[in-house]
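Structure tokens please, single chain.
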Amino acid sequence: MRNYVTNLDSIIARHGKNPDDIHVIVGLDIAKNIFQVHAVDLDTGELTTKAIKRDQLKEFFANMSAALIGIEVCGSSQYWARELKQLGHVVRLLNPRSVKAFLQGSKSDANDAFAIYCEL
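Here you go.
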């Protein structure tokens, strides 16, 4: 499973992390109250898609092993990037135009989170 992620190793290394320490890749769609997560565990292949309330987001990521998290740039993306980096994750902010190319189906939070994951 690790082979397809080799192009991300340089991104992870730029953030001062060892690529072998990253075990999860996450696409995170930020909204006002409900956040959508699309995560894949690189070791087991386990897929997690869930909606998380704003006040539960830090707790969710605090209990997760080191992850590469993609967030589409928006008004609060810088804040959430700082918060998630403090928890030990690597965060990559993505241009919304590049994410749109990966959007499949109608626009929804779950589809947006999947598109963000694919853009990573």
